[in-house]
Design brief:
This protein is of the alpha+beta class and about 230 residues long. It has one domain: Fumarylacetoacetase-like, C-terminal domain (Fumarylacetoacetate hydrolase, domain 2, Alpha-Beta Complex), CATH 3.90.850. The chain is about 15% helix and about 30% strand. It is built from five helices and 18 strands. Strands 4-3-15-8-9-12 form a six-stranded mixed beta sheet. The protein has a five-stranded mixed beta sheet with strand order 6-18-17-13-14, with no helix packed on it. A three-stranded antiparallel beta sheet has the order 10-7-16. Strand 17 and strand 18 (about 220-225) form a beta hairpin. One of its GO terms (molecular function) is metal ion binding.
Amino acid sequence: MPDFVIPAPATPVIQTSDGRDFPVRRVYCIGRNFAAHAVEMGHDPDREPPFFFQKNPNNLTTGGVFPYPSQSADVHHEVELLVALKSGGRDIPEEQALACVWGYATCLDMTRRDLQAQAKSQGRPWEVAKAFEHSAPVGPLQPASDVGHPQIGAIRLIVNDLARQSGDLSQMIWKTPQIIAYLSQFFELAAGDVILTGTPSGVGPVVRGDRLIGEIGGLMPLQVDVV
């Protein structure tokens, strides 16, 4: 047994659709992966290679509530497809990438947009805007053996019964196999890694009392109340 000098932190997990736990190792997020969202954020999607930022594994929380974070007055919703890996490696060929996938879930990338804007203006990292507690509510993780590998299908976010974000997975600039292959050129991917694959246009602020429902065709929905 290891002789830890402090109690070992619990392993962050995502709950699967059959009630089991998927242990999370790392969380990679691709930025501006839907053309319309890139445009609404003031960027040209035709001239930009993929880029990534990270959240912390324990930022992933089972859907239910999202506590409005401190130090921000402008927190935005971003609905995304989450990809969970069962294996990895370096320089994974694109045609072999989907063999690394365990399953998929509906997820939210909650963002302190005001703090992100400050960081961008000063050329600083985004962690304070992206990697805070409860910043990635996630729905039930469903195995690819049940749902396949979603490549087309509606992705949308409903806030208080009104559609805010609406798109299709087919509109992703970088598809799931390309994302995995590209990431593996820079990181050694492994079982337990998860990837958030980007959000469609329509991102916007939330306030306490809002009810968010994320939907992706073929997957279980995610419901979150802002408190």
